[in-house]
Amino acid sequence: MEVEVNNSWSEEMELQTQQQNQKPKTKTVPQISTRNKFGVLANLPEASTPRTPQMDKARRTELEKQSKCPPIIITQKIQDMKRFHKTLKQYIKGEYTTQYSSTQIKIHTKNMADYQTIIKEIRDEEVEFYTYTTKDQLRKKLVIKTAAFVTENDLKKQLSEVTRSVHENEKPKW
Predict the structure, then answer these.
(1) Could you give the CA distance from residue 160 to residue 52 in angstroms, rounded to a whole number?
(2) Rounded CA gap, 20 and 142, in Å?
(3) Where is the composition biased (Low complexity) (predicted)?
């Protein structure tokens, strides 16, 4: 009888191990649809056309044209505001905005041509003002050290190869 008991016990153990080794049956869960937050971007016209370096360059130049101009800040008190606004409208072809405070007037233009025209006219009228330099107008400064053996002409020649221009009216500070 002992043998039969051991056999039944061993059979039970085998059944338990087989049940443990079997993969549990998965229940089918209904699929839940989710919304893609960025799915709207697929409908844009840029997404349908592949990007090329020429398109990127054209877009950069377009953005540069649309770049903001710095404000023109007039610090002088204007006596005749009607005349001031007439002259602004006369010289500015595009849109512009003005901001007033107790001590100054800020003029914001939308394009660089109007900005430069207003600067020129304000200088001609000798009105006190200031503005900020644009990135295009900023000058690069170089510090050259331990170049005692290089002549000024050689230095200008080498720098002109590297940079756009070396200004003739500025002498290097030795």
Answers:
(1) 32
(2) 77
(3) 16-31
Q: Is the pTM of this model over 0.85?
A: no
Residues in the chain: 174
Q: How many CB atoms lie within 10 A of CB 109?
A: 24
Q: Which residue has the tokens 């756009």?
A: 164
The domain limits of the chain are 65-131
pLDDT in tens, the chain (174 residues): 444 445 677 777 787 777 776 666 666 777 777 778 777 777 766 545 566 666 667 666 665 555 678 999 999 888 888 888 888 888 888 888 899 888 899 999 888 888 889 999 889 988 899 998 877 777 777 677 766 777 888 878 877 777 655 455 555 554
Please check whether residue 118 is in contact with residue 70, taking contact to mean a CB–CB distance below 8 angstroms: no
